[in-house]
Design a protein that fits this description.
Mean pLDDT: 90
Shape: globular
CATH class of the largest domain: Alpha Beta
Strand order of the largest sheet: 9-10-11-12-13-14-15
InterPro entries: Metallo-B-lactamas, RibonucZ/Hydroxyglut_hydro
Strand content: 15-25%
Order of helices and strands: HHEEEEEEHEHEEEEEHEHEHE
Structural class: alpha/beta
CATH superfamily of the largest domain: Ribonuclease Z/Hydroxyacylglutathione hydrolase-like
Number of domains: 2
Transmembrane segments: 25-44
Largest sheet: 7 strands, mixed
CATH architecture of the largest domain: 4-Layer Sandwich
Protein name: L-ascorbate metabolism protein UlaG (Beta-lactamase superfamily)
CATH topology of the largest domain: Metallo-beta-lactamase, Chain A
Number of strands: 15
Keywords: Membrane, Transmembrane, Transmembrane helix
Domain Metallo-beta-lactamase: 132-336
């Protein structure tokens, strides 16, 4: 009897020992998971960036006719679809941004890989580089202007909205930049890591209203940030830059939609007049811009991201051509394509549709390969995407 009781106690102690070990392991796993989750939360919070409070926005922007003090949001020039028949379509859901795109090319893009040593010490009077999507360097009047710098993915986590192909330039290999221009704060136009990298280099930043708070939170000195509302301008040496309206929206989370402004830009140098559409749907504001600020020697125009389900978000191919007519531009430089799957297009669908329509309307396109330096209107470019195998 004594032996049986002792044996039972031994078994009980053994079981308790095992349970204590399991508890310790579970506790450590829980601690690690909490630390990991906390790290992700802090990382995502940093990616989101800061914005002004409702009270601050109402004080700053309350007098603007494109800002509502009731909702604390900026307002698009047109709220109804420009083409009402294009209201059908699908929203595939956010989960697809975590997946490898079925619309990506099967082979790498042709590209010229660059380092900072391959840029001239003095920027040209007129030249451009395209690094994918909306990331462009414009050299104008001896100044180097960088638009919407994004060199990795287009989301708050590295696994979200990955590029089809690597950038031809690493952010660490950027040449000396004089001015960074941001069109709006969506992830495919404003990359936290790149802003942090550029923050302490004495570069000037030009952004739409409200976006400056995000840059300050990432380390850009306030004195280096100029915020513009629509129809406001910045004089940068010999260059006059005017922020102009667009039909779009802003925000980096579900809770800050339209709490910062978005913009297109007219960039007028000594001899060249440039337009950058940013992201916009088509509307009557474009013809007004063309009449007041055109004609343009070159227009950077977004061509991809259109979908029947959201007709005001981006330009449809025929609207790209109409914009060029409205702007009275000599040259069309397509941007916002060939880098991210944003609207269920085969990667080369938009560029081919725009190219076909441009040819029908005698509009000359500038379509360099990634990383190629071109003088628009002088350097010949080709429809390189036609010979690239893809889905």
């Amino acid at each position: 009897m004594f032996d049986r009781t002792e044996n039972n106690n031994t078994k009980t102690n053994y079981i308790l020992s095992i349970m204590r070990k399991i508890f310790k392991v579970a506790l450590w796993v829980l601690i690690v998971l909490l630390i990991f989750a906390g790290g992700i939360a802090l990382y995502v919070k940093d990616q989101l960036g800061s914005i002004d409070s409702l009270e601050e926005r109402n004080v700053k922007y309350g007098g603007l006719n494109y800002y509502s003090t009731e909702t604390g949001e900026f307002i698009s020039p047109e709220k109804l679809p420009h083409y009402p028949e294009r209201t059908t379509g699908g929203d595939p859901g956010f989960s697809r941004f975590f997946k490898t795109s079925p619309y990506a090319p099967e082979t790498p893009f042709p590209k010229k890989m660059l380092t900072k040593n391959e840029f001239s010490k003095t920027p040209a009077d007129f030249a451009t580089y395209w690094f994918g999507h909306s990331t462009v360097i414009l050299e104008l009047d001896g100044k180097r202007i960088l638009f919407d710098p994004v060199f990795k993915n287009a989301g708050p986590l590295p696994i979200i909205t990955r590029r089809y192909d690597i950038s031809p330039l690493k952010r660490e290999e950027l040449p000396k930049i004089d001015l960074v221009i941001i069109t709006h704060d969506h992830y495919d136009h404003l990359e936290t890591a790149t802003i942090k990298y550029l923050a302490d280099k004495g570069i000037e930043f030009l952004v739409p209203l409200g976006v400056g708070a995000r840059l300050e939170g990432w380390g850009v000195p306030k004195k280096n940030i100029t915020e513009l509302g629509w129809e406001q301008e910045m004089i940068f040496d010999s260059i006059t830059i005017t922020a102009l309206p667009g039909i779009h929206y802003s925000g980096r989370s579900n809770s800050d939609r339209n709490q910062t402004l978005w913009a297109s830009y007219a960039i007028k140098g000594k001899e060249k007049n440039i337009f950058n559409s940013g992201d916009t749907g088509y509307g009557k504001h474009l013809k007004g811009i063309g009449e007041k600020y055109g004609p343009f020697d070159l227009a950077f125009v977004e061509i991809d991201g259109w979908n029947n389900g959201w007709p005001l978000t981006h330009l449809f191919p025929d609207q790209v051509i109409q914009l060029c007519k409205d702007m009275n531009t000599k040259l069309l430089f397509p941007t916002h394509w060939g880098t991210f799957d944003l609207a269920l297009h085969p990667w080369n669908e938009s560029i081919q549709m725009v190219a076909d329509r441009a040819a029908e309307n005698d509009i000359e396109m500038v379509t360099p390969i990634l990383g190629e330096k071109v003088i628009p209107g002088v350097t010949p470019t080709s429809n390189w995407w036609i010979t690239l195998s893809g889905k």
